[in-house]
Specification:
The complex is a heterodimer of chains A (309) and B (308). Chain A contains 13 helices and no strands. Chain A is mostly helical and 309 residues long. In chain B, helix 2 (94-104) crosses helix 3 and helix 3 packs across helix 4 (138-150). Chain B is elongated and about 75 Å long. By secondary structure, chain B is α/β, with parallel strands linked by helices. Classes of the chains: A mainly alpha (309), B alpha/beta (308). At the A-B interface, helix 2 of A face strand 5 and helix 2 of B.
Chain lengths: 309, 308
């Protein structure tokens, strides 16, 4: 059917809004099913350990003011003598580095595996076991199904990304009270970054999950996408000496997007993986956006051919 | 579409590549219990899938409860559907599954829980309501699926081959469930390729064969269409020659073939006349009858007669 005809048809029929009850029901139930078994639950529990460990390290470090100042001065290339000398902006930058490192490097790995655990089976298993038929001939649109499935994947990923990171940030703010005020705005930013990270991963894994009828196939494809693009990026960067090739990596592009969310201005001497300045937010957003759009197209096409309107 | 019809099709056709699943179907289906009858490949599932908007017609239109199923998902608030596929989330309990699908159909969490409870009662599964469905028998799984289709209290329930693969007890349960639903005012459309199943419960029959509508109407109407036709009867009895002598005089008897010492095959041009006269003739002869059979009298033969 020509596109214009489709548009007119939709306008003519006053397509009703999605049923949010259906969306939440699918999100709740499929999320609960994704968490069934000791491994999915165990992964969720294990993913919280780094947060506790880092919080303990922060506590130990903050017992000695000079240790903290050494870190801050090392990062900011300054020579502050006490907490009171450190300006709010510097506290914000130090804390945002902590959040960035936690969410992308530490928790990011847990989220990568978690994406496969909680997402790979979502559409593939429904199609393999014919369970998809339970949604047919109900007042459910294909987008309700997809959003419900997204919620089911995003919820555990948010738990993995936000809770330990937020816990560490909270610990830092509690043990260094001077940093609390300037860092307040980091909390909503952390939540937004977590939602963006989890949603992008969830969209991509649902697209992959809809490609076949096996969750094993989806898991392997997800890891291939993640690690192959990373490996290619490293090889190209090393061989050409041009860090612009980091743009090939799914992970690096996600990091660029999150860095912009956190409004980071990384300290140059910080020994962390920061996105190269050679590729901009716009190019990363374009690549990730295209990948997300392709994934959405794939899953919607599969669900519609599976006979949801 | 008349006021009484729940489903109305006009010139409805559906092709699968070069194969016609359904050809030029025009029919008004009234409220009540409706049986879609036909052998495999007759177009029953195609018609049900068109009713649910799962597939688009190649030609023609279909309206269910006055709405186009393709563009009116709100129609599904008034309709329940149980597909032929054995679709269930096995790791859930019946109550979890039915309640979940109640919420997915637009009920609030508490309403869905209550509706699930009632729905499970309707299909008599209270005893296993909190047991995981892995390991459920086919009959139990079928009842869970029906409960899930009933949870939002639809006006119309569509069942695709609901009795296939069930044992006689489970079949009887499904039949009595359909009867109870009909008594509550729910219209039920179900497909089957077994004549007596449809006859037992349906008050209106739509007969399909190779995608074509052969007949539709009440059971009585179909019976009238089929009451007089040529067929052959095999009788095992003592003294078959006496029966042959009596029947040879009748104009409607077209052939008499003896089979051994105690068998006779009677051919007739009018089944109605033969079936009416035969008991009287047999009583008059007074010979014990061991078996009366109609070889080749299956659904295919029935459809063959309707095609003529």
């Amino acid at each position: 059917m020509p596109i214009l005809e489709q548009v007119y048809r939709r306008l003519d029929h006053h397509e009703p809004a999605s049923s949010w009850r259906a969306v939440w029901a699918i999100g709740d139930q499929c999320g609960a099913m994704a968490l069934k078994g000791w491994f999915p639950k165990g992964w969720l529990a294990v993913s919280q350990i780094p947060g506790l460990v880092v919080a303990v390290i922060i506590y130990v470090m903050t017992r000695n003011e000079s240790t903290v100042l050494e870190v801050v001065n090392g990062m900011a290339r300054t020579g502050y003598q006490s907490f009171n000398d450190v300006p709010g902006e510097t506290w914000y930058r130090v804390a945002s580095n902590l959040v960035y490192a936690m969410i992308t490097i530490v928790q990011g790995w847990f989220a990568t595996v978690g994406t496969a655990i909680y997402g790979a089976r979502q559409v593939a298993d429904d199609l393999r076991t014919s369970a998809f038929e339970v949604y047919v001939a109900r007042p459910i649109w294909s987008r309700d199904y997809v959003i419900g499935k997204l919620i089911a994947v995003v919820k555990p990923l948010l738990f993995i990304l936000i809770v330990p990171t937020g816990f560490c940030l909270l610990a830092a703010n509690l043990f260094v009270p001077a940093s609390a005020g300037p860092c307040l705005k980091l909390y909503p930013i952390l939540i937004a970054a977590g939602i963006a990270y989890a949603t992008l991963n969830a969209i991509v894994i649902l697209g992959i999950s809809s490609l076949g009828k096996s969750s094993r196939y989806a898991t392997i494809t997800w890891f291939v996408l993640y690690f192959l693009t990373m490996a290619v990026s490293v090889i190209l960067t090393q061989s050409t000496g041009d860090s612009v090739w980091e743009i090939v990596s799914y992970r690096a592009n996600l990091q660029v997007i999150l860095a912009s969310f956190l409004r980071l201005n990384p300290f140059e001497n910080l020994d962390l993986e920061f996105p190269s300045p050679d590729h901009s937010l716009a190019s990363s957003a374009l690549i990730i956006g295209c990948l997300a759009a392709l994934s959405l197209f794939l899953v919607l096409r599969r669900v519609r051919s599976g006979r949801l309107p | 579409m008349s006021e009484e019809s729940i489903i109305s099709a006009v010139g409805l056709s559906r092709s699968y590549g070069r194969v016609m699943g359904l050809t030029d179907l025009t029919v008004d289906i009234p409220t009540g219990v409706i049986g879609l009858l036909g052998p495999n490949g007759a177009g029953k599932s195609t018609l049900l899938r068109l009713m649910t908007g799962m597939i688009k017609p190649s030609l023609g239109t279909i309206r269910v409860l006055g709405q186009d199923p393709l563009s009116s998902p709100d129609l599904f608030r008034s309709m329940g559907f149980v597909s032929e596929d054995d679709a269930l989330y096995e790791s859930m309990t019946p109550h979890e599954m039915v309640s979940f699908l109640g919420r997915a159909s637009g009920l609030s969490k508490s309403d869905a829980r209550e509706a699930a409870h009632e729905s499970i009662q309707k299909v008599s599964l209270e005893a296993v309501t909190n047991r995981r469905m892995r390991g459920f028998s086919k009959g139990m799984r079928q009842r869970v699926r029906i409960a899930a289709a009933l949870v939002h209290e639809p006006r119309l329930l569509l069942l695709d081959e609901p009795m296939t693969g069930l044992d006689p007890v489970a079949r009887r349960d499904i039949v009595s469930l359909i009867e109870r639903l009909a008594a509550e005012g729910v219209s039920v459309v179900f497909s089957s390729h077994i004549l007596h199943e449809v006859e037992a419960v349906a008050n209106h029959v739509v007969m399909l064969h190779r995608g074509l509508l052969l007949a539709h109407g009440s059971i009585q109407h179909i019976r009238d269409c089929l009451s007089d036709y040529a067929f052959t009867l095999e009788i095992r009895m003592d003294r078959p020659r006496e029966l042959a002598a009596r029947l040879a005089r009748e104009a409607y008897v077209t052939s008499l073939v003896f089979e051994g010492e105690d068998g006779i095959r009677v051919g007739t041009s009018s089944s109605k006349q033969l079936v009416t006269a035969l008991p009287t003739v047999l009583l008059e002869i007074g010979a014990p009858v061991r078996e009366i059979a109609c070889p080749g009298e299956n659904l295919e033969a029935l459809f063959g007669r309707l095609l003529k």
